[in-house]
Design brief:
alpha/beta, two-stranded antiparallel ribbon
Length: 269
């Protein structure tokens, strides 16, 4: 897959990123069927396949159980070959999620992620919203902490995984990138994509396949719909099935080829 710019961050990503929640957590997730967490050998094969297929983008988080630690141990090839995006603000402990968006907790979380991932920098860290986006951005210390961590060179870019249109629009103003929900059944956040495109901010799409509920026939439709929107840098899809990973790559490539084939040649006269 041809790499694409992540807004104005200077980072280039594959249009499809691998979501890694299933590498470390299978409780209180919203997938249609239960699943077993794969062993190290299966994870290693999946990551090697992702690399072979041209995927360089990985999405993880402290709330994804052992995902970060497993990536830190099992990721193949040089660190520079991968774009690793993690998050701060949500934790999954004793079978329950909790949130802490304070300055101190954000710094501790990023430092812990660096240790778990066995790296000295993260390509991006997103605030892992609990749904109260504006309060987090306006009243908590997470945003200031990420700005400082960026100045220290520990992260290359910062942003927010938002849950509201107002929060997404504010994140576009205040950060380098946003992660928003977008699919043919969820169009409410399209104004955030337009605002990000206007400001050259990075956009990652979550729940592109409705957390596995899109169905086989809906995958191609979802890919075409999402990549036709302005400003979309890439989408994150979580899977531990090699066949699904290959099929998703094919669907993304077909959607991009179709969209690019329909674009008019040249500029306005």
């Amino acid at each position: 897959m041809e790499l694409r710019p992540l807004g104005g961050t200077g980072i280039r990503i594959s249009p499809l990123g691998l979501g890694t929640v299933k590498l470390g957590r299978n409780r209180q997730v919203k997938y249609p069927r239960p699943f077993e967490i794969p062993d190290d050998a299966a994870v290693s094969r999946l990551l090697a396949l992702a690399r072979e297929l041209g995927i360089n983008l990985l999405d993880t988080a402290p709330a994804y159980g052992a995902s970060e630690e497993r990536l830190g141990r099992l990721l193949p090839g040089p660190r520079a070959d991968w774009v690793i995006i993690s998050k701060a603000g949500e934790f999954f402990e004793a079978g329950r999620s909790r949130h802490d968006f304070s300055y101190a907790a954000t710094v501790r979380t990023v430092e812990q992620s660096l240790r778990h991932l066995n790296t000295d920098y993260l390509d991006a860290v997103l605030i892992h919203s609990d749904g109260d986006d504006l309060r987090i951005l306006e009243q908590e210390g997470a945003l200031d902490a990420l700005r400082e961590l960026k100045e220290r060179g520990l992260i290359r870019a910062h942003g927010m995984s938002t849950k509201t249109v107002a929060g997404g629009l504010r994140a576009v103003e205040e950060t380098d990138m946003v992660m928003v929900t977008c699919n043919p059944a969820h169009r409410e956040e399209l104004p955030v994509l337009a605002a990000a495109a206007a400001r050259s901010k990075g956009v990652l799409i979550k729940k592109a396949l409705q957390s596995g509920h899109a169905g086989e026939g809906g995958v191609a439709e979802a890919m075409r719909f999402i990549f036709a929107q302005p400003g979309v840098s890439g989408i994150i899809v979580g899977t531990i099935d090699p066949g699904h990973l290959r099929a998703n790559v094919m669907a993304v490539e077909a959607a991009l080829e179709e969209i690019e084939g329909n674009e008019p040649e040249g500029g306005a006269a």
